[in-house]
């Protein structure tokens, strides 16, 4: 019985050694395959150079003239011009037209009559408070 356990342990050890050797062999072959056979990398085309036009805006303070400032900074001292406010322009007043107002009493809204006293046990309906049908149609 000891012989069976010993043979079984020896068999397991040999099996593990073979499995490890096969695994390392396949992994090494794949690494060599990847190193020796390279997939070509896609070539990146260079970005075309764009052509620009330089615009001379002149002096950076005023924005006109022929000298291009190399280093922007404080402008050279120049004559200070006194501020003169612009002369106000007189505008003529136009005659306003007279606005016609409609003060006719027939266009006024009808007066709404409110009940004088509310009784909880009232049986009669106040018919004076209803709007005429013609007025209602005109409003719609």
Automatic annotation (TrEMBL):
Residues passing through the membrane, by range: 21-41
Record's keyword terms, sorted: Membrane, Transmembrane, Transmembrane helix
Region (Disordered): 58-130
Feature: compositional bias, Basic and acidic residues: 94-107
The protein's name in its UniProt record: Energy transducer TonB
Taxonomic path: Bacteria, Pseudomonadati, Bacteroidota, Chitinophagia, Chitinophagales
Biased composition (Polar residues): 78-93
